[in-house]
Amino acid sequence: MIDTNKSQEGQPPLPMQGIPQPTRDEVLKLPRVHISSHPVMAHKMTALRDNNTTPPDFYRLVKEIGALLAYEATENLALDTSTIETPLQATTGYRLAGGIGVTPILRAGLGLAEGFREVISDAQVWHLGLRRDERTLRALEYYNRLPHQIDLQVCYAVDPMLATGGSAIDALNILKRRNIPRLCYVGIIAAPYGLLKLTQAHPDVDIYIAALDESLNDYGYIVPGLGDAGDRQFGTF
Ligand code: PRP
Ligand code: URA
Question: Transmembrane stretches, by residue range (predicted)?
Fold first, then answer.
């Protein structure tokens, strides 16, 4: 169990200490924010948050939640139509127009991206490595495999945790330089603070999340949250 709110006497202030945060109610009505209300999602989220869930089960749950979120976040994708033949007669068929990109923000976004690919198997995966410096809470880029040839109708930046919003904002800034027609952010748990910052920085981006939690603690961890999503997926405690 992480000790999330212990302040050290004589030490510099903790990164979120004394920083005002919006409430859940203040961000619930933000435009372009979609929060899942599906009972299956609530069921899986409970298992995911549980401190007794082991890394293999945690990873499986992240993938399953990723698939559910992919289904919700692709609700308004554009389609091309064509005529196809069934064994009985001709009929109109539909295919997703243009390519679909998924950008897992490493490393915790890997499980979510796997879940996405179970719904859209031919999605391109564009890896982007961002690591949050736990002292300053700033995101640092350490890996970038975004392709130069772009032919996508949409790219989904996926990362389980939207805490201060720094990693998500930076990831979308990087993706925006690739001139992709539409960008979405998909996450599992958001804090009101990060959600507000993200919508302020990228008001044109749709955001799909499974849950909106109460706040960030002084260390910048989401509470109640689920702890460290990367460590819990990969067993690196
Ligand atoms: C976590 C998480 C997000 C980020 C969220 O990753 O997966 O990327 O922190 O925090 P923020 O909203 O304050 O930027 P972390 O940097 O711990 O790296 P990891 O995925 O390798 O564990
Ligand atoms: N990153 C995590 O993995 N968990 C949090 O609560 C915040 C950032």
Answer: none
